[in-house]
Request: fold
Amino acid sequence: MEEIFKVISEKPEYAAWVFGLINALWLAFLYFNKKRHERELIAVKQSFDLDLERRKKVFEMKATQYESYFRHIDAIHNKHQTDYQDVLTPIMNEFMSSYLQACDHNDEAEATQATIRFSEQISKITRDGFQELSVIESETNSLRLTASDEVAVLLDEIKELYDQLFAISGKMMSDLVKITIENDQELAVKNQAELMRVGELAKSKAKELREQMRNDLKQI
Reply:
């Protein structure tokens, strides 16, 4: 310490130059350090903004896909709520009227035609069902690309339940002639009970899926 004071006393100009240089270097360090921190803060902010924008886009994309999926599901449910009363019953009544009238007149040709018309109408309903099933399958495949594992599992389970519903509906329609001609109410009740059972399972799984989709969106 004494040596330093001695140098300062003997060479004040040199000491002033040294202190000035040190101060300049210190100020330069502070300046460049501040600039570096500013650049880092800007980079962090830009990264944060980009992440927020990415998450926002992912949220909007998933929300739109989930909404579209349940729009289709709800539309199918609403469309088929009164199918038995509004669609199948008139077809059955028309068939029975034509078929029984043909039988009364021993008109086998007309009885055959009545059965053919009935089968064609049932086939059209089946084709429409295939189209609805393909929509669900397409929506499921699209969602599985970005959905969480939990959502993907539920999507597959619901798809399987709708496959079962379609198969049961097909059996019900194929049994209609037997039920109608033979008045086999036991078979009709059995088919209806199975359809209701699987339908309730599908509704329960759909409710579970809605909740899981909400959780999925919250985690984005």
